[in-house]
Design brief:
alpha/beta, RibuloseP-bd_barrel, single chain, TIM Barrel, eight-stranded parallel β-barrel
Length: about 270
């Protein structure tokens, strides 16, 4: 699978048990997520990625601090329903639970997972997170899920490497040592634009693997950024008024898809 185009984010709202949860129960969260997924696909995205975005503050996701079971179950239900829309679907278990994401992907027939810290060690708002590439790749083999791609962030947002790390080194670590199938480049935070120089450096080091923009894409920077990327994950810009916690605005999706359709790097 080599996606070329815009990938829409389905943000699950806060669920029962989350600090930000107020009302609606699980069914209300599913209804909101399914409405967003349908709006994104009808607007022309080439894929979807489902995240437990409303469940902040997030657990680390590493051994001993995995995704809470109700969040994992909710993600699985939304992912399975999203697959019925006929586009590739991935999942990201925030903050960094590749093991649970792989379990969901294998059970639901998903196409990829996103891993924020696949290799190396980063200081984050959850504390120190270390990549688990060795166990993640072996779990994929045990599940017979080799078709599930691993998309790994390079110098991910909301994080700082424990020791100084050049983008080229981080990219090679993800691909050559962590065996990632694609790499993702982000800005400093959710909705923050990617540094064009960083994107070019990662693409130059990616050895032909797909390079995906992971945050901050909008009409103002699409022409400068997309020629250096194979795909882009878009969450904030697709929401009503460009506000990340609002519902997806179908018109914003259609307009952005049309604007970007011919800008991506050549296959």
């Amino acid at each position: 699978m080599h996606l070329r185009g815009l990938i829409g984010v389905v943000h699950l709202p806060a669920l029962p048990g989350d600090p930000a949860y107020r009302a609606g129960g699980f069914e209300g969260a599913y209804a909101r997520a399914w409405a967003d997924a349908e709006a994104l696909v009808s607007g022309g995205v080439v894929g979807l990625i489902v995240e437990n975005f409303g469940s902040a503050p997030f657990v680390k996701g590493s051994a001993g601090d995995r995704t809470p079971p109700q969040q994992a179950a909710a993600l699985a239900l939304v992912c399975a329903r999203s697959k019925q829309l006929g586009v590739p679907v991935g999942v990201n278990c925030l903050r960094n639970d590749a093991h649970t994401a792989l379990g969901i992907a294998a059970a639901c027939g998903l196409d990829f997972i996103r891993v924020n810290v696949h290799t190396g060690a980063y200081v984050t708002d959850q504390g120190l997170i270390e990549g688990e590439a060795a166990s993640t790749l072996r779990q994929r083999e045990l599940l017979g899920a080799r078709a599930v791609q691993i998309w790994a962030d390079v110098l991910v947002k909301h994080a700082t490497p424990l020791a100084p790390l050049e983008p080229e080194t981080a990219t090679h670590d993800c691909i050559d040592r962590g065996l990632a199938d694609a790499v993702i480049v982000t800005g400093a935070a959710t909705g923050a634009p990617v540094d064009p120089a960083l994107l070019e450096r990662v693409r130059g080091a990616a050895s032909g693997r797909p390079v995906v923009i992971g945050s901050g894409l909008g009409p103002k920077n699409a022409q400068a950024l997309l020629p250096h990327a194979d795909a882009a994950i878009v969450g904030t810009h697709f929401k009503r008024g460009g506000v990340v916690r609002e519902p997806v605005d179908p018109k914003r999706v259609r307009d952005m898809v049309e604007r970007c359709s011919d800008l991506f790097a050549s296959a």
